[in-house]
């Protein structure tokens, strides 16, 4: 039974990931870690290139190219960083609007998968997902990576609270 459950969970996970990728591509016309970069920068903590690189799991050159593209698209602006050697990344007004579109699109893409479930079943699933996530032995950096596309406004009592503030200050 555990192998069947594992297989089913893996398939649902892929269906969710595919839907999130498609919604993000429709919103930003970019795939990869671009949507996650917009969401993470949108937390408003002014991450540096290196801090963003660690959260997204990208190389330094890949992160620089990503940020250059976001700046060229008018979504991100560079400001002076905390230690003057680094720059801080912030969303522009247009970037905030696109971030909102991304977060709403993500929820809208996943929501249809839950419609066959009754409200009670949805609550039971939420409790089980919370339990699974809470049992994960993850560092703060790993939690930031897992939550890189989360809409923290709809996730009360987060099972794996990612401290982006700590991540962007200490790595």
Summarize the structure in words.
By secondary structure, the chain is mainly alpha-helical. The chain has one domain (2-170): Orthogonal Bundle (Arc Repressor Mutant, subunit A), CATH 1.10.10.10. Helix content is 61%, strand content 6%. The protein is built from eight helices and two strands. It has helices at residues 2-28, 34-41, 49-56, 60-72, 93-110, 119-134, 140-146, 164-170, and strands spanning 76-80, 87-91. The protein has a two-stranded antiparallel ribbon. Strand 1 (76-80) and strand 2 (87-91) form a beta hairpin. The protein is globular, with a radius of gyration of 17 Å.
Quick recap:
The protein has 171 residues and is mostly helical. The chain is built from eight helices and two strands, in the order ααααββαααα. It has a two-stranded antiparallel sheet with strand order 1-2.
Termini separation: 40 Å
Rg computed from alpha carbons, rounded to a whole number of angstroms? 17 Å
CATH topology: Arc Repressor Mutant, subunit A
Main β-sheet description: 2 strands, antiparallel
- Mind telling me the CATH superfamily name? Winged helix-like DNA-binding domain superfamily/Winged helix DNA-binding domain
By DSSP, the count of extended strands is: 2
Relative helix content: 55-70%
Shape by Cα distribution: globular
Query: What is the helix tally?
Result: 8
Number of domains: 1
Mean pLDDT, all residues = 89
Spatially, the strands of the biggest sheet line up as 1-2
Order of helices and strands: HHHHEEHHHH
